[in-house]
Design goal:
Keywords: Kinase, Transferase
CATH superfamily of one domain: P-loop containing nucleotide triphosphate hydrolases
Strand content: 25-35%
CATH class of one domain: Alpha Beta
Organism: Streptomyces chumphonensis
Pfam families: CPT (PF07931)
Protein name: Guanylate kinase
CATH topology of one domain: Rossmann fold
Shape: globular
InterPro entries: P-loop_NTPase (IPR027417)
CATH architecture of one domain: 3-Layer(aba) Sandwich
Helix content: 40-55%
Number of helices: 7
Length: 186
């Protein structure tokens, strides 16, 4: 069965940290490297060009696209297919409910939806600590995430994790347990 994890939350909520803990727990979990067109951080992304994006869009292979921080971030069908080869479980990081909804609706897999949360104060503290040079933009994105959640009160989260009170390994074990139990039909 094709399966994946959708991690949603504001900037600095711990998506990278929890994903690292998941991959330590089970090497079958793989960060889905979104296609990024732009500048800045490259780790965890497949860097692309505007021409690649236009080609994907022309073929209908863009599942979700968002523009933030002056960049374009893409969840694409060929990229997800590539990660799912060999039975791997992609962990997709998203910061918009529209992305969660589109990936779940447009890419056939058993998606486990996980909300990672932290306070705005925690984002303000964590952001510069992880090397962000645009913390003000990250805090604006935190506000947008909170508003996004308010607009989607029935989002269908299968798991909610407060990363201020839950250790990354504990979060990873909870996610893994849910993925395994839903994959087995329990």
């Amino acid at each position: 069965m094709r399966r994946g994890v959708l991690l949603y939350g504001p900037p600095a909520a711990g998506k990278d940290t929890v994903t690292a803990a998941l991959t330590e727990l089970d090497s079958g979990y793989v960060l889905f490297p979104r296609l990024k067109i732009g500048t800045g951080k490259t780790r965890g992304y497949r860097m692309g060009t505007p021409e690649q994006l236009a080609d994907l869009e022309a073929r209908g292979d863009v599942i979700y696209r968002n523009d933030r921080y002056g960049n374009v971030y893409v969840v694409d069908r060929p990229g997800l297919d590539d990660v799912l080869d060999g039975g791997r479980t992609p962990v997709v990081h998203l910061g918009q409910m529209a992305g969660v909804e589109r990936v779940a609706a447009l890419f056939p897999a058993r998606w486990v939806r996980v909300l990672l949360w932290c306070s705005k104060e925690t984002t303000a503290r964590r952001s510069p600590g992880r090397g962000d040079t645009d913390t003000v933009a990250r805090l604006a994105a935190w506000d947008a995430t909170q508003a996004d959640l308010a607009d989607h009160p029935q989002a269908g989260w299968e798991l909610r994790i407060d990363t201020e009170t839950t250790a990354p390994r504990e979060a990873a074990r909870s996610i893994d347990h849910l993925v395994r139990s839903t994959s087995s039909g329990s």
